[in-house]
Amino acid sequence: xxxxxxxxxxxxxxxxxxxxxxxxxxxxxxxxxxxxxxxxxxxxxxxxxxxxxxxxxxxxxxxxxxxxxxxxxxxxxxxxxxxxxxxxxxxxxxxx
Length: 96
Prior knowledge:
This protein is of the alpha/beta class and 96 residues long. The chain has one domain (4-91). 31% of the residues lie in helices and 32% in strands. It is globular, with a radius of gyration of 15 Å. The relative contact order is 0.15.
């Protein structure tokens, strides 16, 4: 399957359908990201205040689909941790 490539792009307050696309070093701010059954690729992306809509069938006995969901959850967790660390850094930085 040929993926539509997005590299270094920024998306703000949009609904983005991830399936069938490749996102490389893209930034998503305030977006709704929709993932369905198709193939996708994400690499080095950042997420801020994004909501995820995941419509995915996990077939019994298909370990690959479980790994894909775990990878996605890890990516979302990392984005949240980065956001919280940035918020904490901003709240402890003195203002002039």
